[in-house]
Amino acid sequence: MTMKIRAIVTVKGLVQGVAFRHHTVLQGNQLRVTGWVKNLPNGDVQGCFEGDETDVQALVEWCHHGPSRARVDRVIVERKSFRGEFDTFDVRY
After folding, report:
1. DSSP 45-73
2. InterPro entries per the record?
3. Domain segments of the chain: what residues?
């Protein structure tokens, strides 16, 4: 059985105004990851991803490049204990 994990991910670079959140939701849904993604006031994008470890890791890896118009400079990942608090993956405002 695959271990369930939670990751708090902060993506730095040109990641706002390039549909990063929208594409993160699409990727998350494809990977059966739950949680949220949002823009931060400083220009970063942050997400909380929960699911099977391999699926969450795949979404984190995708965040290293993001959608085609994005320019990712850095991805910071904080691994946390799985809480199982989400049923969906969506954009937060």
Report:
1. EEEEEEEEHHHHHHHHHHHTT-STT-EEE
2. Acylphosphatase, Acylphosphatase-like_dom, Acylphosphatase-like_dom_sf, Acylphosphatase_CS
3. 4-91
